[in-house]
Design a protein that fits this description.
187 residues, alpha+beta, Aminopeptidase, 4-stranded antiparallel β-sheet, 3-stranded antiparallel β-sheet, 7 strands, globular, Aminoglycoside 6'-N-acetyltransferase, Acyl_CoA_acyltransferase, aminoglycoside 6'-N-acetyltransferase activity, transferase, acyltransferase
Amino acid sequence: MFRADAPITLRRLSRADFAMLSRWLSEPHVARWWNHETSQEAIERDFGPSVDGSDTAEIYIASTEGRDFGLVQRYTFEDNHGYIDELSPLVEVPGPALSIDYFVGEPDALRRGLGAAMIRTLVDATWRDYPAAPCIVVPVSAANAASSRVLERAGFHRVAEGPLTPDNPIDGTAHFVYRIDRPGTTQ
């Protein structure tokens, strides 16, 4: 049983996690929004470069009380200029800003506050690890109400809405954009 009040730890994704990651990506509550292939080849193709360091995205496995439950990744917009271009009609994104992607993979960890706690843990680490980052900006499909709620619980605020390319082709283009600013700064 997962407890929401237990500390969250983050460790870098390794190839030893790939079978678990494939299982999580196959879970209906994750597959609906991530729309990711789960074969061994697809996991290696899409996550192996981050493990090796040739992709700048930093991918973490979140755990509490020694049990893995979710994934969170962060990346800078400076390393993903196309992403800035896509968001620019909706919101200004400073180059040193970051974005994140996340999911709770273990079904019995859902609706326990762990998603927001995992995100807050990464946000706190981001302020330490990226001293020039003024904010974290996250677009979310407007259809994904759970993702919006978890960001709000983690301290993010909705700053824009509009059309973006969906991660899952079955979703429309309507998206919300969330932002959290470095403590002590304003938007």
